[in-house]
Structures are given as C-alpha cells and as structure tokens.
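Retro notes
What went well: the complex prediction finally ran end to end.
Inputs used:
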Amino acid sequence: MDRRPEAEEKPRAKRVKVSDLNPKDNPYLAHRYEEPATNKFRRYATTAAMAKEAEDGPNNFFTGQPLSQQYFQILEARRSLPVHAQRDEFLNIFHKSQIMVFVGETGSGKTTQIPQFVLFDDLPHIHRKMVACTQPRRVAAMSVAQRVANEMDVDLGDEVGYSIRFEDVTSQKTVLKYMTDGMLLREAMNDPDMRRYSCIILDEAHERTLATDILMGLLKEVSIRRRDLKIIIMSATLDAQKFQKYFNDAPLLAVPGRTHPVEIFYTPEPERDYVEAALRTVLQIHASEPEGDILLFLTGEEEIEDAARKISLEADEMIREADAGPLRVYPLYGTLPPHQQQRIFEPAPPPLRPGGRPGRKCIIATNIAETSLTIDGIVYVVDPGFSKQKVYNPRIRVESLLVSAISKASAQQRAGRAGRTRPGKCFRLYTEAAFKKELIEQTYPEILRSNLASTVLELKKLGVDDLVHFDLMDPPAPETLMRALEELNFLACLDDDGNLTHLGRLASEFPLDPALAVMLISSPEFYCSNEILSLTALLSVPQIFVRPATARKRADDMKARFAHPDGDHLTMLNVYHAFKGPQAQVNTKQWCHEHYLSLRALQSADNVRTQLKRIMEREELELLSTPFEDRKYYENIRRALVSGFFMQVAKKNQSGKGYTTVKDNQDVLLHPSTVLGQDSEWVLYNEFVLTTKNYIRTITAVRPEWLLEIADTYYNINDFPKGDVRSALERTIEKIRRKKLLKGRN
Amino acid sequence: MDGDSDDYMNMAIADPVEKRGKETYTQRRIRKQREAEIKGRTKSKAELRAEEAAAREAALSKSLDASNKGYKMMKMMGFQEGSALGKGDGRTEPLNIVVKEDRGGVGLDSEKKRKFREQVDQEAKRVKAEEGNYRDRVKKEREEKRTEGLVLGAQKVAEKLDTEADEAEDSKNTPTAAHSPARTPIIQPLTTRALTLHTLATYPPIILTPAKHKPSTAADDTSQSRVGSSRKVRPTKQINVLWRGLVRHREEKERERRMRYDLHQSLSRLPTYNDPTESEDDKQALGKNNALEVDIEEEDPELEEFDALGPAERLSRLVSYLREKYHYCFWCKYRYPDDTMDGCPGATEEDHD
C-alpha cells in the first residue's frame, strides 16, 4: 500500500518541530501531498484484506497519525473475535443491501467491531457523514465509545464520541457516534431524514426498548426517502426472523458466539419461596460443585442486598464448620454506584490456605447481567425465573416496576451466561413443565408496557400524523394510544383534532415527560421558573435521598431537616438549595455523606439543570423567581406544579384512611417516604407505584381552587361522576363564587 | 319549577313510597347508631386491601370508550373500533397487570390451582358415581331385606316342620335315650368358657353352680314344656344349620332379656343369693337355669359359613330343603302329600307369580 513511510521513521516529536520545515509535515498542506490510503478505497467496494492492511498501519487510517503500541496490542485481541472471521461476508451483504440484520451472541464482538467494519467501508470521514450506533443504555454507550476510541487509537470525543441525554461528547471530527436510542430519536425530531448519517446501526435490538421500536418504525420510512442510508439491525438473540420480516426480508448474517454447552437443571416441584430456594441452591453449589463462579438472578436492590448478606453469613459458617472455600458475594443492580459495579470483575478469592479448597465469587444481579454485562468466569447460573419489569396500563394509568415471570428467551439468555468460559450449569428454580407452559416466548417489548404520551409527542414532532397506521413491529393496544392522546390534549400539547399546538411544539424541545415539560414552560407565569427548573432536574434523576439499611433512623432525621410541611417537592428543592449553598460546596462529597444524600444524583441534577436552562434560554422562556421573602414564594411553586401534574391528583377519603385518585378512582396510600402528614385534603403526586399496595410517591399538598383555576378543562365538573370528589369540587366552586360575589359587593 | 313532576302524561311510574311504620324514638336512635357505626368503623387492613384490589380490578377490566378525547382523534386518523393499530395484527387489549404478592416460585400458583382442580374433579366424580349407584343400591338393599324376611319365614317353617317331625319320632322312641346324650355335652364346656366370658361381661357368675344342673330328665322335660313352650331343646349345634340361626338369635335375645332381668334383680339381691324357698321350677322359670347360655357363645363355623351366604342362596336352600323333606312349598304355603308336588308351579318365587 502506498503510504507515507517517512512518517513512521521519524519520531513524532520531531515532526512537529517548527525548525523542521518539511512541508509534507505541515498539516495545513497535507492535502497537497496526500496520496491517501483512502484512494484505493471506494465506498461500498472494499474488502476485508484492504481493511486489514489499513488497520495494520503504520498510520491511523482516519487521522493519519502514527499508531501506538497499545493499538497493535488491542488489534491482536480484536482479530481473534468471532466477527472477524466473517468480515468479508459482512461486507458483501453490506454492499448489496440497504438494510441488513446481524445476529451475534454476546461476546462475538459485534458492538465494538461492526461499526469499525462499517467505517472502513462507508468512509464517512470522506463523505462528511457519520455512522451512528445506538445502545439502549447510557452506560453502555459511554463505555463502548471509550473502548472503541482506544481500539482506534483516538481520543474519546474526536473521531469516536458518544451522545446521551444531557451529555454530548462529540466534535466536528466525529465519524462514529455511539448514542442512546432515545438520543437518536430526539435528533431525528430536528432532522427527520437523519441526513448527517450515512449508516445507522441499531444495536441490542432484541431488547426492544421503546426508542428502538420507534426508531425501527421511523427508519423503515426514512429508508424509502433516503436510498443512500444504510441500516444495520443488530440482535443478540435468535428471533432475527422477526426483524427480517419487518424490514421486508432483509438479508441476515449470523455469527456464532463463543459459547460452551450448558447443562440445565430443573426442580422437581415448584418452589414455595424462590429467594429461599435460590440461597439454598447457591450454598449447595458452593459446597459440592467444582471451581467456578456463580451468577444468581434476583429482582431488585432490596432483595439482592438481603440475599447477599444471608449468603455471606452462611458461607462463613460453612468455612468454619465444613472447611469450605471462601465465597465472596457481589451485588449488582442499576442504581449501584459505578465503582461498586466494577467490583464484580475482581477475581475470585484465593484458597484460605495453600492447597485448600478454591474460593469463588457469587454475583447477585438483576437482569442487567442478562444481556448487557459480560462477566467472565461464570460457570453456574441460578435462575429463579423472575425479574422486575415495567408495566403500564392505560386504564388506571399506572406505570410501575413489578416482579413478573421472565420469558423463555430470557431464561435461555440467562442460562447462556454459564457457558462463557467453559461448560457450565444452569439451575432453574422451577419445573420443566412450568418452563414450557408458564413462561411466555418473548419478553413483551417496552412499547407494550409504557405510557406513550412522550412518544406520541415525539412522533407528532417527527411529522408522523397517522399514528393509528404507523407501522410498528409490535403495535401497542389502541387504548394506550388513546390515553396518550388524551393526556396530551389535556396538557394542551395537542388540539382537539390531534394537531400539535404551539405549547406541544415547545414541549417537544425538552427531553422530558410532557407533564414536566409543560410545567417548566408554564412556570414563568407563576414567577418561579428558576425553582421549577431545579425541581424538573431533580425529578429527572434517580432518588437523591439515601437510606441505607444500617442507618435508616439517622437518614430519616437528616431528611427531616430539609422537610417542608407542604410536601416532598419543596423538600427536594430545599435540599438542592442547600447543596448549592456555600457551606455544602466546600466539600460536596463530605456534605452529601453527612446528610444522607446521593452526590451522584445531585451532581447529575445540576448537569440536567444546566442543559434544560440552555433549552429554556434558546426558546426564550424567562427565568424568574418570586422573592424568597414573599409569602407566595412556595405557593407559586405549588401552583406551577399543578400546571403540569393536574392529572396526578388524589383526594383524601372521607373515612380518613387513604386517598383516592381523581378520575381513575384508585385507592392509594401516601408512600411512607413522604414528609407530608396525613391531613392534606388534596395532594399532587409524581408517581403512582404499585407494589403489594398502591402508593403515590413524591407528594405535595395542593388546593382544589388551584385545580379548578389552572386546569379547568380537566376539572370540568360535568365530567365527574357523582361522588366524593365531585361534591368536594362543587363545594369549592360555590366557595369561589361567593368570594367573588363578596368582592364584587365591596 | 320542575315541569316533569307535573306532567300527567308522564309514563314513569313513581316508585311506591316505602311505608314505614311509625318509628319510635328508640328505634330511630338504634338505627341511626347502627348506621353510624357501619360508616364510622375503621376498616381493617385486609378489608382496605381487598377494596383497593377490587377497585383496581374494576378499573382494569373497563376499557376506555368513545367518551375519551383520544378516541375522537384516533377516529379522525381512521381508527376502527375493535381493530388493532399498525397493520392491524397487533393486540387490541392492553397487557394486564398482575401483582405478585408472595415469593412463590414460577409455576407454584398454577400447581396449586391444578391440585385444587383435581380435588374438585375427583369429588365431583365421586358424587356423580354415587348418584348413579344410589338407585341400584337402594333397590338391592330393599330386595335383600325382603329376602332376609323370607329366609326368616322359611326358617320358621323349617323349624316347625323339623320339630314336629322330631316329636313324632320321639314319641316312637324312649324319651331318655334321645335326650341324655344331647344334654351332657352342654355342661362340659360350661365351666371353662362361661367363666371367662361372664367375668368379662361382669355378669354374675351364677352359672358357676353346676351342682344345680343335674335335673332329672323328667323335670327337664316338664320345665322345657313350660319355658320353651312346645319346642324341644337341643344343643344348637345339632340343630339343622338351615334354621340354627333362628334358634341362636332367639337364644341371644333370651339371654339378653335374662341379663337385664338379673341385673335388675342384683340391685336388691346378690346374684349368688340362693333363695332356699325357690323351687327348681321357680329357678327355671326365673331363668336361673342357664344351661343353654354357654352354647350360644360358642363359635359355630358351620353356621357362620351358612350365614355368609347371600340371603337368596340361603332362601333357595331352605326352600329346596322343605320341598325335598316335607314336600312343602314355601311359595304355595302348602304341604303336598307326595314328592311329585302336584299343583305347584315350580321351585322359585317367579314360578308362582
């Protein structure tokens, strides 16, 4: 290959010396002397051999810079990945078709390698386009981008970058962009044809996230308008036919993963208590199975922490009494801080004494360990058959995480985790008959389990007007769409004919739930947009209060210091204000630790706030505050809350126990975490969560007058059936009327 | 002004005003109190939870309808009620929400349900089977009962005829010769067997006085005629097995009667009390002579075997015995003069229908 050999011979440092006036080294004149490697490269006509040569250097194909030692080390490892063997095959299909489906099991290297294969063929740096690769999770987008930047010997944010909500690490140079699927969807709202991309790769499509499903629907349409756009659907599981069929029989390439056989065991009888059975199984494996790490799937943080504690205790006893090897237990769930998540990659503990029984680690994880995270060394998988899954039902408008049985596909995925390094075993804590009869084939895609209000708003913005016939892979129930349209109508984002209103257009600019966006947009009317901005940011991040099991009382006491008598929203605001105060800013880490607050959540709220503020400024929304001394300071904030959340209001029951949600008439209890007493007649809530009880969480007391005034369409008295709520509203109307009369007389 | 109420053309029939009898003050007070109690009672957690779940279920099972604003918008987009979105092959109903309330493993609930269903099925099957058999069973029982009655009747006839035949024979032979050998073996087992039995039954062991049991044949004869009416007493084992059961049953009854009597007597008298004034005959009459007592306690495999036969079989044996020996037809209730039994339609009941 004709490249510039001198670049390699010369040390890099020398090259940039001004004294050395070789014009060939002047980057500004580089184009004159360029006999670029890319010359031979014709778009959609390259081969694996060409790419290999280019990868071999000595200079970086994209930057022209000499490649580092580290690069070549990684290159070795990359070439041993299963996908590499089929590079030519991949390129052939890629050349010939606009849309292709790629199936590669976890560990095949598809997420990191396929986008690079595309780069060497699509040549986006020449054509001033980009390649996008979507990920369902923010963390994955970030970490994969970092990994690929290393592999390509570039800095993260240069040629390879990532873009996730509230964080964009890309530049003019970027040719490969990892991003969350939601982010690509948002981009499409301002660029419906996705002109900046020459190729879009939807990774982990088998996870069927809401955004991926919508993107597939969009791309199916865009692909007709833009014949030059290449689309690759990547999936880790074998239901690829469904994708092929959906994309008009797109060609398929499957790359086998590197897996070993996994022996599957079932229980003879259904288990009475799956957690208990899981603990028993783990300990039994530790006692009687040969070396190898254990992966146990449980449903949530509390369950996992509890199980981890119990297993550690029992294992210690086994060491004392039965000379068992050491067992180290690691919990793993989404809300765990990253450095603690990293600990799962620590090697298993060594034997307690030389020649003693080998140690092992046991990872207790939610289903994040099912597909997204790859942990080597796992030989035993314990699968109780449950996971926490999001559910939504438009009839009662509850969106919640509920423990449900997993699907067959999930169970297979879990079992597969045992065969990563050597033949493994999977212990399913249910009967074979239950596996066959009780488990559904595939997990329901997220689109069937979500509130679609914000999706509908996005689609409207994208110009999809006929939502009824929009071709989705798994269209949701009509009632879900009905409810979403209704909610958007009440929020005045859609008019009665279903057209986007000005407010709706504005709301779609914010990467927020419509209710939050509307609240934020309306907040200047209530002279508290600064505060509502903070509050919106706080509601967009994970829980800011930390309540460790070991110090519940202390944590509650600390929270009480910030408590506002009118509710949780104002309490959160107090926390944020304190966090931004000079006292806390001296040492935020220390301060948060002392006050049982999550620094990570607060920092990320701070970041979100900055991003949202930028959008507000762009949209020319005023940033106002009522003076703190004004007695209406808090009232204004509460009223602004009503402007977005008037559909999430509950009224106290006459019997005095519990609340009933307005319109849906669901009996609910105030979540125990609230700072609010039990004596507020009307409350506004952020979430309706279903556990074994119906709870409303993050609550603020409101006045019925505000509801009637701010959301008069929703609180149209004629729409309410006879009952407690209606009569209470009638009383309020009467009260307002009399007040007015009185005023008129004066 | 409410126009409707005055419209005499109105077809609506007014609800009859509930006529309540005059409620006294106390009644009203109690009623009010009760109502208030019901209203004001704080519901238990379980009740609240049940209500909560019920409200949830109610809301979940009710689909959104045309009154929903979104419905109108969808209509404008060309939505057809009852159809799915997209290309029309999607779902029409939202996914249901199932709240898992315990830690039961996958398949536990359905296993429980399956077991429960199985039990119910089995129970239903059993009841059904029993229902089907009931009539047959009742019919069979009734028939058996009737046959048992017929057996009894036939036994009585056989006894009568046999006794008559015996007596006729006796009158030919010397009475002692016939009786003495029959008498002696009865006393033999008495001492041993009766002892155990009677102590067990706390029965006064009066029979342990065998000395008294040396009645002369003559005395025996006379007493027999008095106590046992015209029937001649024989050790039951020598009685024809066909009607031995009858005798035995009678003896059992007799013994019971005597036991009751003795018990009654013993309240005032020691059971062993021997009234010197009592004559042998009196003793016999009062049932203090218990010679036969022992016999009925004895095991009788022959009789047991016979009783084990079905009533129909026993009846047929009795009937044929009577026919063969006495030319007596149980069904004609007539003793024919010779074995041709001229005029009898046959050996079975059906023949006589």
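What we learned: Chain B touches chain A through 51 residues (CB under 8 Å).
What to try next: split runs per interface for comparison.
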